[in-house]
Model the fold of this input.
Amino acid sequence: MAKKKGKKGIRKPRTKRNVRFEKSQRTKPSRNFQGNIRFRGQQRKIRNNPVNENEEAELLANKERKFDLENVEKTEPLSVEEIEEINQEPEIELYTWPEFMEEAETNPEPDSTENNLLERTGLQVFKDQMEIIDRDSPIKNRHTLTERLPLISTLGTVTGVGLLAVNPFIGLPVAATSLVARPILYRLTGQKKLEEQISDQFVELAKQSLEEFDKMVDYLSEERIQDLKPNAVVLRALHKAMLYVTNIRITAINNTKCELENRREEILSKQQQPIDEKDNEELLEIGKRLKEIEEKHVPSLERRLKEIKRGKDRLSQNYKGNLATRFNIFAHRNTSSEEYLEVLKQYADAELERDTAEKDKNGIKMARAQEKMDTIMQENTGTNRFGVQNSVFNKRDGAVRIISDRRDNTVRYAGILATGITGAAITAAKLNEYAGAQEVNAAEYERMINEHNNSAVAGIQETQAELRTALGDLDQGMAQKVADEQRSIAAAYGESAALHEVNSTSSPDYFARDQLTQDHLSGITTKITERKPSGILRQLADAVRARFTPTARLDSIATQRIGNNSWEVDHTELLNTQSGALEQQKATAQLYEQLSTVLEKSEKFANTKISGINKFANNFIKVTKSFIGPIISGIATGLGIGRDMSESKKEKQHIEAAIQQEDNDRTE
Amino acid sequence: MGLKEQLMTDWKDKTIEYQERKFYILDQFNFENTEYLYCINIDTVNNKNPEVAFLYKKNGEIFEHVENKELFEELLINVSGRLVAEKIEEDLKKITNN
Done:
């Protein structure tokens, strides 16, 4: 429901975006021949008498969708005072979050289950919005001229440089103009104005129905934007609207959060011991709502905005010419709204058909409708003879398609651990197989080697020599430091757990709990006594394992504290730090364990008399070079770095001690 | 496959869509004169046995995945060695830098 002017409301801070929005709203309302007010983007909605039956039906349909037009229509002729008031350009009261929400809540969508209607999907909302765009602010080809700027710039620069040779006074301006063409064209072609109009239209949708706005935004994920190829103007406008709406929503959420935190402080400041039942319940409720805000609301809003931003970045020359850093002068993804709408309607209708069939449990009809959707997508996907993708849609062809180029450390780390463990298991099995065969058939291999003047033996000898050299580089002393580090982290976890349990280091309970950690640590060896790489890795696995119990205990305490309305200390950060740490430690320990097994097997080879045949030798070389080699060099490099670090630390300590000594001498 | 995919040279840490599944590329390497992409299905990362694949360019144009079991194992041994070495190095750096 649109908000009437003059209604009291809390004013928003005048950010750049708000100022521009206010300006756009302040545009003088024009009057049609019947004396009705028209605001920008609402011309058709507020017309008093529909011109024909179609428009009347359309308006009725809009009403049914809760596009409440009654409040924006003004059927009575305006009085002189009213006209003067309009001419004075009164301050527009902007929406603030509570009103925004209030209206969305008091203006719910029709219950589809009650009316036995299908729930409107994001695609249907998008189609409706495209219809409004095509009707009120149609996008022509000229509006996206700036999206082809690389082509224009290139041509302009080439012409300019060419003319420079003839006459610099002509060439220079042409070349310079081509470089600054974009901002000029952006205004000249009317793209800027159009984007603002469409952006306002999307904001209006959010005001009328946040649910529908969210549905549309959720539907337009980065992948779907690539499939459906919405016009660059629409994507830019949607991004602008999203920034505006998200900003309001996040501000409102932060206000709510602030209020909740203040209330919590207020209750806690009463200093009553123990806190009564009512306050306890309220604190529990506050904790629950704060958790919901942190974990659900804010991330959800940020994710939506990110999807649209990424989708927007996929447009035109920002698609980076299909290369990370270069332009693609052939990029073309913008079709006029008229051309686009025709296809989008067919596609959306097919989706509606499919959903209706699904509701009716008609499998055949549903499958046919799905096929129809695919066909529409396929028929409207294609490139011209120069390879320019100039179709309305962009159907996935089953081949590889890049959907994101951001590094994701969570997936990366989990993937490496899983791969490492699987790879180690396969390698161990292979080496076992070769070792077994070697032992059983040693005599046979010896006989064959004698007959076989093969170069593979030389290869295997060389590989084993490399392996022995690499294994010899492992430093027991540095590995001990790594293990000690693990042990001290475990001890710190234990102490932290004890502190969080009893909230005081002077309590006897604290000492009792700390003793638990000490007992746990004394039961686990973190002493590196082995000299062989396999032994070192196994003992490192034990050192990592030493952290399991204290971490799990701390994790459990943090969870418990958050659940039990901890008012002494905020444990949220603690839980976030702990979250997932235990699983990662377990996987790391398992990986070291597996590696140790693999190395043990490889050491066995190193100590065995060389024997074998071509195939065996080649397989051995492959496995050792492919798997063991990199790991050994990884460990050796890692420990080498550690050694360098350790030496430079010692050097630094030495210098600091010397300076201190000098200072002391001077003082004396 | 679009022009971007045809011209792309550095695939590491990209998320791609292949056969209607989302894969994250963990490594790109050369094995016996063929360029392979090692990737993991994002939706199965937390499973006990995540889905992984080796992709390579066929005729320099379209991507296909390795189906031969022996080659798959060889590639897995190769790539896991390199990735684990990378991880160990990172872990040790992290610890020694603290």
Remarks:
- The first strand of chain A starts at residue 30 and ends at 31.
- The two ends of chain A are 84 Å apart (CA to CA).
- Residues 409-642 of chain A form one domain.
